[in-house]
Amino acid sequence: MKRIVVFDLDGTLLNTIGDLTLSVNYALNSFGWPSHSPDDYKRFAGNGVNKLLERAIPQEEKNETNLLKLRQKFIEHYEKHAVDETEPFPGIPSLLDSLQELGIMIAVASNKYHKATVKVIKHFFPSINFVAIYGAREEVPMKPNPQVVFDILEKANIYDKSEVLYVGDSGVDMQTAVNAGVEACGITWGFRSRSELEEHNPLYIVDKAEEILNIVK
Length: 217
Description:
The protein is of the alpha/beta class. 46% of the residues lie in helices and 16% in strands.
């Protein structure tokens, strides 16, 4: 049995695409720049807020000054509306409850900026005692760099990597698991395709949240 499951956030635990779409489009429209569809943001997301905005801004407007202005507008809006349309994916609340009842530690490793990561996790899963909730932090390189996983394992006092399962919806997540030397489980209900997951040869790919419980056991 695994002792800890490390989850990605956006596209894995929570469907955040509606609120991300609204907030980035609000920021873009504030400067008269065109907006994008939710499907576009599923492709743009996954590498942190700066990369998200860099992908969304018009090519001819892409410079450091504009990106900083866009980031400020985005965060101002997202701070107020991060949970308006966001919701857990089907089966996730019961999966987390079951893992906790089994005494398995649960952690979050996200490229979403840290403050927002903690906010949405605490809002949607108040009864889960996460051993660690880490979003993007200035002093730590983002995924697929494995440092966030190492930080979680250190906090959890886990030294045997065979006791770890990393769960995510993207190639970035699968590569993070590889880089950290832990088993990867790709999920198909998120923002990216099964083919993207398969490119990184994860040990598992699942279509339903309850399948993760069987892997852990």
